[in-house]
């Protein structure tokens, strides 16, 4: 018996509805990941040694980070609600999916990035800056809202990037870098500058170790270096959703 003429529109509507639901699932997953990463705190941090003014500066930085996170949550929630009410309109869902894919590509370091931010300059003439110290600096920048980071214009820093001590300097994600270290960071310039400059922050930590350090805001930072992509040895895409 031949299929009804309504079969094709019904199938199309079903496909559109599936596309919208898939994007909603992606947004919810991204929201959960963002909350987990941004609100994570190091329980071992000792604040007892900080002075009152230092605690005030730290609290201001945390407040700004919380406001940024709340804005991101509101934006993702509004997008999710709009998609859920679109009744199978796949056009908007595809646009949102494309934008989200570009955002995730920036975070993964697989495409270049441009935007406002800061430049952190570190002169390590005495060789006192080691891998552990640089990891601490990078973590502080991430917690201050860094969205893209590159060291000496060649070493793109992402979540999986490692830092090792090297004979002539450091090895960051497979790229050898030497002093002076120039760390370009894309994100909110005010928040990043505060994270670096407040008493007891990044600049003070570096200077306490014997390095010379400074930070400067930039209206535009362009990052062209890409992260070194490592092919997973064990992990495979779960295309079946099981």
Task: Describe the fold and architecture.
It contains six helices and eight strands, in the order H-H-H-E-H-E-E-E-E-E-E-H-H-E. Helix content is 47%, strand content 19%. With 242 residues, it is of the alpha+beta class. The strands form two sheets. A five-stranded antiparallel sheet has the order 3-2-7-1-8. Strands 4-5-6 form a three-stranded antiparallel sheet, with helices on one face. A hairpin with a 3-residue loop joins strand 2 and strand 3. Helix 1 packs antiparallel against helix 2 and helix 1 packs parallel to helix 3.
What can be said about this structure in brief?
The protein is α+β, with helices and mostly antiparallel strands and 242 residues long. Helices cover 47% and strands 19% of the residues. 22% of the residues are buried.
Percentage beta strand? 15-25%
Distance between the termini: 35 Å
Q: Runs with pLDDT <50, length 5+? A: 33-45
Described by strand count, sense and barrel closure, the largest sheet is: 5 strands, antiparallel
Approximate helicity band: 40-55%
Radius of gyration, in Å, reads 22 Å
Q: Order of strands across the widest beta sheet?
A: 3-2-7-1-8
What brief labels describe this structure?
5-stranded antiparallel β-sheet; alpha+beta; 242 residues
SSE diagram, text form:
Elements: H1 7-39, H2 52-84, H3 90-108, E1 113-123, H4 131-143, E2 148-151, E3 155-157, E4 163-166, E5 169-172, E6 175-177, E7 181-186, H5 189-197, H6 202-208, E8 212-223
Antiparallel strand pairs: 1-7, 1-8, 2-3, 2-7, 4-5, 5-6
Helix pairs in contact: 1-2, 1-3
